[in-house]
Amino acid sequence: MEPEAGTNRTAVAEFILLGLVQTEQMQSVVFVLFLFAYLVTIGGNLSILAAILVEPKLHTPMYFFLGNLSALDVGCITVTVPSMLGRLLSHKRTISYDACLSQLFFFHLLAGTDCFLLTAMAYDRFLAICRPLTYSTRMSQTVQRMLVAASWTCAFSNALTHAVAISTLNFCGPNEVNHFYCDLPQLFQLSCSSTQLNELLLFAVGFIIAGAPLVLTITSYIHVAAAVLRIRSVAGQKKALSTCGSHLTVVCLFYGTGIFNYMRLGSEEASDKDKGVGVFNTVINPMLNPLIYSLRNPDVQGALWRIFLGRRSLT
């Protein structure tokens, strides 16, 4: 079907999400694995949120940002996985055009906010280690809330820009998306109009939205590393770095998969690899974050144990 001349309307009313696997037996395996991952992710991140709320020791800027990050991880996996599980159960792989664009918008909104929050956490570690005497005033509750609000605002602008830009494209068939959720690179491949400007916009905006926070994060940690090296005792160095290791791990995972997915476009052969990256972005990263932040953190571990055992904090 040809799109109407002179308009930006699409002839495609729905898309077919091909998913991760095609055989029915493997679909059952994928359903069980992703349901388990979803429940673990929701449980892990809600546990972190509960620990931060009930444990007085965790009422600090670092854990305020971590709580927001946990909420974002819950949202990020909920945008993609439940709908995929529903399609696996019903054996119906279609998604409407409007639902596809909505999923794309909310995914980029949450992932973008995640990106800016990670930068805010790096700035928090910079102030705590490099400017300890003025830390409480520079990272007040007002500043914390302003950083979170700015993160949501920038991410909203980015997500809305891409959603509006892709709505101007024509989709006149085929309508099979070689993925398990709607995302920009896969939809670009299906458009029957030129996507050159859209791809340029994705690259340019992505370079600014992700590049600027990455530069700020690296700069913060260069200053942190220099400050740690000036600490003479090994115990002091380990204590300073203990709060940074988990954050750096999450930053590497987030930017590694994001750069692979969005900084190279136009390759149909890379679709299967994109699915693997998509699993990392939407499932593995949100599931690992609670483990990464709690594994080497005695305060979080102690708060979680008290929640599970029904005990109150002694502080």
Automatic annotation (TrEMBL):
Protein name: Olfactory receptor
Record keywords: Cell membrane, G-protein coupled receptor, Glycoprotein, Membrane, Olfaction, Receptor, Sensory transduction, Transducer, Transmembrane, Transmembrane helix
Main location: membrane
Superkingdom of this protein's organism: Eukaryota
G-protein coupled receptors family 1 profile domain segment(s): 44-293
Localization: Cell membrane
SUPFAM superfamilies xrefs: Family A G protein-coupled receptor-like
Task performed by this protein: Odorant receptor.
